[in-house]
Queue: 4 jobs
Job 1
Amino acid sequence: MDQTREVPTHLVDTARSDPDAIDGKDVETLLADDREEMRNTGLKVLVGLAIDDPDRVVPFADDVVDCLDESYGLARSHAALVCWLLAEERPDLVEPAIPKLVANLRDIAPLYRFRAARAVAALGRQRPASFVDHADGLVAAIVEGPNLPEPGEPTPPDAEETIDLPEPDLARSAATKEVAANVLVAVAGEAPAVVADRFPDLVPELEHDDQVEHVRGGIVDAIGRVARADPAAAESAIDPLIDLLEDDSRLVRSRAIRALGYAEAAGAIEPLREVAESDPDPDVRDLASETADWLEENVLAS
């Protein structure tokens, strides 16, 4: 390759303003270049084309997938963005990227992992079974990612393991974990035993107040999916779920109640009665009462 050739950044502007003027051969040349700046420019051009029409990037799908493990972070980020834009229309072409996208959920840069998460979310909605073999990566994205306060809340001064991030990065990191949790819920629907096997790593996360509510809620829903298939498989999660009946989040409390019902947790009847009497939310009180009644009639009575 000609190492003296300047990076044609003007093509990025053209892809945004006049995508029909982009010649596919120019993109091919950029993606095949030895220099990471050139390949990244090619990916940025593809972002512009995909925003205009995802079909325009179909011929480059394999090249984009290859770029997901580039050593150059910006290239990984733009490749993930193209994958997201393409996944909505052509998930079949992006499905081979799932291992790399899941790995990128733990990228050091919040923006990069967030872009990978958007692609994972799109594929998770359409191809949940394809993530069954990547449950470990999804769990790792939840467990090994930064522990986060709720967006807009100050970082607790004694939270040694909590990362103090700028607000946009905080939101991106929280969203990435939420995606991982939600796709894990879908995996639990496809292969509940696979998720049950990850409970030793997953369930302790319910005790972390710095896991934001939608992440905790996603974990609870994954446990609930497992319990629906096999109540006994969720036994190790029952006590942590009971503890969540006092969670600050209405969303988490409601999901914990449902999961306890699916788990046929007779030991939760009395705690549920207390929630039915004292929870500040009337819908939560009603749900707790109904679940306690069901457990008494269908579990204790059997």
Note: The longest helix spans residues 167-190.
Job 2
Amino acid sequence: MIETFAALFFAHALADFVLQTGWMAARKRQFGVLLFHTAIVLVTAQLATGHVASGSILLLASAHLAIDVAKAWLGRGGLAPFLWDQAAHLVTIGAVAWAVPGLWDAGLWAEMDGLPALMLLIGGAIFAIRAGGYAVGLLVTPLATDDVAPGLPKAGQIIGQLERAILYLLVLVGEPTAVGFLIAAKSILRFDSAKDSRTAEYVIVGTLASFAWALAVAYAVRALLAHLPPLEFLS
């Protein structure tokens, strides 16, 4: 079951946060775009599990389409719809893994014992870094005002990606105490911004949200990895 979930989670992270472009995300109300994205979801799930034809994967892709339609037409944008959308996708993936636990064992890659762990690691990294960027951006964008001091173009986005990547890696290699040093280092570097209360509060909210997201994903991945055959470099 965990192997199936790992493969489907990897496929979902790849389809939603790597292969889905900004152009596609902005046009989710166009049914043709939704169908194209659903086709990507289907193909990535097929490749990840090693099943060219599977009713359960087709059902999963159909559920993905239904969730995206609901978000596109009922959601108003913002963080809450994004979280509900991702939660619904993960619940659907979990339901398929629970209902068809042998999906991975019947696939083409079943003999590759370490592959599910690798997929889970990569999927988790994408979810921590890329999905976390979307979530944090949706949280802090409404807080940005003209009073918040601007920085370099996209610098904040790159910093957030790097800090989430470092946090994710630290937890997975068993060095969570080093997170404190990362927080201290960022606090020192951001010391000057504390002179402006609006900018300081904006930075604090974004930083804490970014850290919390990365830590939550990292610990969830680490818990699931305990139930999978280990990769050699993690054993």
Note: The CA atoms of residues 65 and 72 lie 10 Å apart.
Job 3
Amino acid sequence: MIVFDFDGVLHDSNERAWRCYRDARREMELWDLPDLPGPVDLPVVYQGVLSASLTRWIDFETAERFWQRHAELTARAAVEEPHGVIPELVAPLTEVGAGPGYAVVTGSHRRTVRDLLARSLPVEGMPRVLLSRDEGSKTEKLRWLRARHGARAYVGDTGSDVRHAHAAGVTAIAVAYGYAGYEDLLAAQPDHLLGTPPELALWCRTHPSGDGPPPSPLP
């Protein structure tokens, strides 16, 4: 089974994430955080472990509250999104969904993610398992999916996603078109690095069960 992150991997939410970053920064009056001029500047703050990445400017507890508020704002703004799944990924996801099945593990809210997926995918193309921000850490979710459903690979867009995959003993696939910068992804040492949605679509078609290098034994 392949497991996907959602935002930045299956769904292009960069513009929404940037707008909500600016809104949360202004609402909480966190002027020490960088004022990002545009969505392309998101890699400035999406480095390593998410909350820890902001400790360059604010304390960890404040960073945790900031990202919680950011998640609330992005969920609220999702209704304005014109698209669900990135167009190039609709067909391969539908094929994998109707075949071996896939899972989504995300830091976003369950209802938001399910609604956005359903905008683009037929019923048979929806994920077999969807685990959201309310159900433990990504590492715990990936370990459970590996033990229960034979998950073999996790596709994410940040160095943190890569580290969660390694900790859970599954293959780490990183995409370079999401939130994090290229250097942050390389520093986390993914097993594979894909540059564009068409490259991910091809990988899904050639590895529909998430097969690849054998995962390490379960911790």
Note: Residues 213-219 have pLDDT under 50 and may be disordered.
Job 4
Amino acid sequence: MQRRSVRLGVPGLEGDLEVVRHGHWGRPVLLFPSEAGSARDAEGNGMLDAVRALVEAGRMSLFCVDSLDGRSWSDTSLPTEERARRAGTYTAWLEQAVLPWVQEQSGGSTEMVAVGPSLGAYHAVRLALTRADVVPLAIGLSGTYDPTAWNGWGELGDATYFANPTAFVANAHGDHLAWLRARVSLLLVVGQGPFEVSPTRALPGTRAFAQVLARQGIRHELDVWGHDSAHDWPWWQRQLAHHLPRFV
């Protein structure tokens, strides 16, 4: 299997983050790590092995990205609005550096899929909702989609609002809502087992966000796994291997 690693500069920061590509052909799939993870996590936690056959068959190329959570959402010493503002730097990196590089590598003609577990699910889903022109499909595994619920504190402002899919999707209307309905397709997967309710609140958070999508008429699927399905890598591997072949 071909493997290529690059480091792409982060707008506004003196530094860069890594993107690792696995594969040589096929639909580009952008894989986010779990909270505060790295682009290399997919190799160590079994996510690459879960879809290896698809990569080797040329049905997809897997583009794994670093996170910047440690400087933003994971730093609970900061108020929510500041965490959201810092998360905007990561969004800028994705839009200005990662998406163009992936398009260049893929020939620019194939729409991307975004995937992620836990906090990575939030990143994948938010990217599809804001850049459905190039990433119209996202798969969120055991995610939550309301950053104000992540040990949030302090006064909230525009940075938090525009980082919060639960808020901006609920308030979408007119041409923007029509665009979301026409372009976006989301698959929300979550279990009912260990850690999916406490402490992560992924199960109630996923169900609540699915209700927002349903009220707004945005195309989505909600797939709730059983009481043995935990907030952990072995289950995310199975869920990814189960669903991804439909889309590549």
Note: The chain has a mean pLDDT of 97.
